[in-house]
Amino acid sequence: MLVRMTTSNAVRDPLIDHLLTSENAALVVIDYRPTQLAAVTSMDRALLVDNVVSVARLAKAFELPVVLSTVNVANGQEPTLPELKTALSASAEIDRTQMNAWEDAAFRNAVEETGRQKLIMTALWTEICLAFPSLDAMREGFEIYPVVDAVGGTSPDAHRAGLERIVQAGAQPVSWVSLAGELQRDWARADTVGDVVDIVVTTRLLATT
Prior knowledge:
With 209 residues, this protein is of the alpha/beta class. Helix content is 43%, strand content 12%. The protein has a 5-stranded parallel β-sheet, sandwiched between helices. Helix 3 (82-87) links the parallel strand 2 (66-71) and strand 3. It is globular. The two termini are 31 Å apart.
């Protein structure tokens, strides 16, 4: 006998849910450029790219607002990694000169205009481009969720120190797979099931078995 899956409880209000939802969160992506990536030594760089692209695909599937920023592209630095920019094709790049994106008015305004207080944070490098704006945003009342396996630092110690610094200030670390589960939450939410299965299971977790 086939049993149709149904939600067992009423859906919690997604705007005030203490967990991440498609209605209360935004994705922030900072400085995923070839030069930044080349200096990452805290994890395998190809895996890091796969992970952040998966995060971007999840943001698209759940229709999250996205703030995408680069640094110094106007002065000759490379733009966002092509595979990530493809996944975020609808998001304009906010270029800046500051190491700390929060000190750039256009970036800060873009974050505020999302209307979301929960920020899913990804950046290269962990110890600078993730840590600095995360610390500033938390001081202004935002909740920060760094995706720990989609960010990287210039050394394992630098990556770990950057994460520990923001966690001590109140950030709540997540992995890219746990992010998918937190946004989906219930297999009866059929609109996004196909995307989640493809992004997490088909394309990634079972692709190498």
